[in-house]
Amino acid sequence: MSFTIGTREILAEPRPLPSKTVRYLVPVLSLIVGLMIGAVILLASGHDPIAAYKEVANRGFLGELPMIGTLVIATPLILTGLAAVVAFRMKIWNIGAEGQLIIGAVAASGVGLALGEHLPGWIVIVLSLLAGVAGGAFWAALAALPRAYLNTDEVISTLMLNFVALSIMNYLIFSSVSFWRDAERLTFPSGRFIADTAFLPRFWGRLHIGIFIAIGAAVLLWWILRSTKWGFEIEVTGDSGRAAAYAGIGVNRKIVSVLVVSGGLAGLAGGLEIGGVMHNLDPRALSLGVGFTGIVVAAVARLSPIGVILVAILVAGLNNSGVGLQTMGIPDDIVLLLEGIFFLCVVGGEWFLRNTIRIGVAGQPVGERSVP
Amino acid sequence: MNDSVIILTLVSAIGIGTPILLAGIGEMMTEHSGVMNLGVEGMMLVGGVVGFWASTETASIPLAMAAGMLAGVLVALIHAFFSVTLRVNQIVSGLALVTAGTGVSSFIGGLDNSALGGMRSVSTLDPVFGGDITDLPVVGPLLLGHDWVVYLSWLLVALAGFWLFRTKKGLALRAVGEDPATADAAGIAVTPIRYIYTLVGGAGAGLGGAYLTIGVFGVWQNGITAGIGWIAFALVIFAGWRPWRALVAAYIFGALRNTGFTLQIMGVEISSDILNALPFILTIVALIIISARPVAARAFRAPSALAVPYARESR
């Protein structure tokens, strides 16, 4: 690819493996470009970008209270990010974390409601989180089995299942007298609350143990991908399914197991939201796009489990600052807009990891071309 | 006869089906070029708010529709740049567009000088054929009682079908979506074609969004599409990438969003939440049948290079 400005020819060509410095510098510079684009939009709509970004820092990150709020928001995001990481590493495009999270929440709240009064709290907590994992895994399996044995495109099936899950949750709370619904509140439909002995333990204020579970899951996944046969086979299959089959890897079973693990992680996010934050099944609070955002978080983190923790916390901090911006007279919808811009800049910036730019004189060969 | 519940249901299915159809036909053209744009919902929201805003400013429906369409094109341009030029993963780019589109549409809707939330549309779309003609039984309300956007959508379906399967340009488009390397070798410009049809998809979604706010609901509200963009995305698959099937399927999907009430009158108790899930369930079932039955696969096949970025170096 090349184009000419005046007498200069600007030429882009593939580069060999980028150095470590470049790999870390590019996303940082891309984010700065994103911040600048965001600043222009803020300016154009009559707001002070410096003050707005200060508010984002103050409300999202600096201090104990903002950080607690941010970590609570980050918890499900880390897990849906990990769900994307494990599947995308094998080039299995699970974009159904949203639905898997919802079904996980339905299962976890169901177990919490059924057992909450009868068993000791910690047993209910463990069982309901396991139910969340199982619910998410089950929902992913609905797409995994056709993918593995009929080659049904998983992008579309996992995507479609999101909306089926959303409808199921809405049905349980809004249009039926289900086990999940609080039968006494008919005018304002809402879910029954689980027993407070089954709430996840909290540390500082609102911060529940979910953040440690999420970070623990990230570290565990990092280790599994790096050091186990299962993780190694994911890399091999992701590089070439045919090579993996020749090497004796059961690719079909691999697809199912990866999607089930991916769905389980998203389901765990749903379970933690029930046990740690909402304590009932509430469609108004749960349909927040955490599953979709997790995919972009994973992409921005370049499918690194540890990177997901960092990116998820950054995104959560931005979300957390929406209320603060609102009090400054900036609509909090700007948060979603900024999020989209930052995502696109960082993901788009990766082009510079694959290509270098050379500037030469038009019509003359530019140095020695690198051989890809 | 014209007031019968079934007729009224079908008419309202055409109403809600039209934005689905417009966005779906656009996305279909995009996907035939090998680009998958998951950002339909975001493009529809931006088209919807810009179109609605333009209708309050100019009181001209055609101008408002054009503004919504243009807004959709601009959002699609972002996707084209990221997925075609920068070769970013198309799923990621599309989903980022949904996030950004949702944010930007609510932001525009809430700007101080144009607080659009809750405002009624100043002008409405009137039926093209007035007078007695719409009183004809059945065909009156079903075929002759619509506004011009509905007829435009039928025209676009015919045009898309003709373009894709009866013209040289359509052949080039499908070649790019099936096998870009071979198309490139045959002298077809892959990148410009992918750009153009990604923008065509944005135009369809933007127009669909504008029709949704101005023509169907007559209001702007944050997140007003409420999943209609995703239904349009499902429509393309359910219709097997064929425009005429999309016409029928769009009205089936439209009817499913609206028939809860009708069915209740007819004595069938079914929750609207279940009906809302049906387009997506039907699409999954269709998809599984396509992949399981080779015969079906030939008639309902995705473009082979769908969502695969093309780089000449890697040929």
Write the layout of secondary structure elements.
The complex is a heterodimer of chains A (372) and B (315).
Chain A: E1 2-5, E2 8-14, H1 20-44, H2 49-60, H3 64-88, H4 97-115, H5 121-150, H6 154-174, H7 210-227, H8 229-239, H9 241-246, H10 251-278, H11 283-286, H12 290-300, H13 305-320, H14 322-327, H15 334-349, H16 351-354, E3 355-361
Antiparallel strand pairs in A: 1-2, 2-3
Chain B: H1 5-32, H2 40-58, H3 61-85, H4 90-110, H5 139-144, H6 148-166, H7 168-178, H8 180-185, H9 190-217, H10 228-238, H11 243-258, H12 260-265, H13 272-292, H14 294-299
Write structural notes for this entry.
The complex is a heterodimer of chains A (372) and B (315). Chain A has 372 residues and is mainly alpha-helical. Chain A has 16 helices and three strands. In chain A, α4 runs antiparallel to α5 and α5 (121-150) packs antiparallel against α6 (154-174). By secondary structure, chain B is mainly α. Chain B is built from 14 helices and no strands. Chain B is globular and about 60 Å long. Chains A and B meet through α6, α12 and α15 of A and α3, α4, α10 and α13 of B.
> Total number of helical segments of chain A?
16
**Strand count, sense and closure of the main sheet of chain B?**
none
Number of helices of chain B: 14
Estimated structural class of chain B: mainly alpha
Largest sheet of chain A: 3 strands, antiparallel
How far apart are the first and last residues' alpha carbons of chain B, in Å? 62 Å
Number of strands of chain B: 0
The helix-strand sequence of chain B is HHHHHHHHHHHHHH
**What structural class should be given to the helix and strand makeup of chain A?**
mainly alpha
Beta-strand share of residues of chain B: under 5%
Shape of chain A: globular
Number of domains of chain B: 1
- From the spread of the alpha carbons, the general shape of chain B counts as globular
* Distance between the ends of chain A: 14 Å
